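Minutes, project check-in
Item: structure for the 146-residue chain
Input as provided by the requester:
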Amino acid sequence: NLNEDIRKDHFPLPFMDQMLERLAGNEYYCFLDGFSGYFQIPIGPKDQEKTTFTCPYGTFAYKHMLFGLCNAPRTFQRCMMAIFHDMIEKTMEVFMDDFSVFGNSFSTCLTNLENMLKRCKDTKLGLIWEKSHFMVKEGIVLGHKT
């Protein structure tokens, strides 16, 4: 079992109550959903062999992080924090592949969204447009109403 041999990552996930507190009271929000989050994170070439599996069509190894790895959630959150480090808590919040952009005015929220989308483009981070909501006055974040 691969998970038994993996050194555990103790990177902290954000505290939901603190995130919700920072989101509260803004006039406008944009809620975006990441596309196949884990699969956007490459596995280092020397570690790919550890994910090898065999099926009737041959032997294969994953090139991107897969669901089920014990460190996948924390690795993904660490990547999101690194990508958006200068925006988190100021203009947006990130919990795994759920992105919340906010602003006290329409124009501020729009500027914050533009900056976030530029960062996604620059880092080739995919989003699911059909599951995203733009320039709304309220919404549901991690099961809680803003």
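Outcome recorded: The two ends are 41 Å apart (CA to CA).
No further action items on this chain.
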